[in-house]
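Chapter review: from sequence to fold.
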Amino acid sequence: MRDMYNVFHLAIPARDLDEAYNFYVKGLGCKLARRYSDRITLDFFGDQLVCHLSNEIDPNPKMYPRHFGITFRERRQFDNLYKLAKQRELPFFQDLMVRFEGMVEEHLTFFLIDPSNNLLEFKYYHDERMMY
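The token string follows.
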């Protein structure tokens, strides 16, 4: 079981660190923790996201199987992030939709795409037991 003091760490490729900074910090509102010549480290909703400078960018990303994101426990937080993404005109890979409609695992989801073609999914389950 995860201890609330532990932090999940994810490293992703970034073709340009200024673009990554603009998307994650100025766009999504993440906090910049550190910046080096080859990477930026971010507080991504309480976890650590590291954008490493790379020339290996997926030119044709697909939602499955490779993406990452946040599953919100509170609908209000999900809605607020969706509104923020719309207001700041962040690039959507897939706009808001309902998955598994009518089933216990029904949830709201949308996907953003960052400047390096990394896909981010944000979800909210109506039944919080389905979060895991």
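Two observations follow directly from the output. The chain has one domain: 9-131. The helical segments are 17-27, 75-87.
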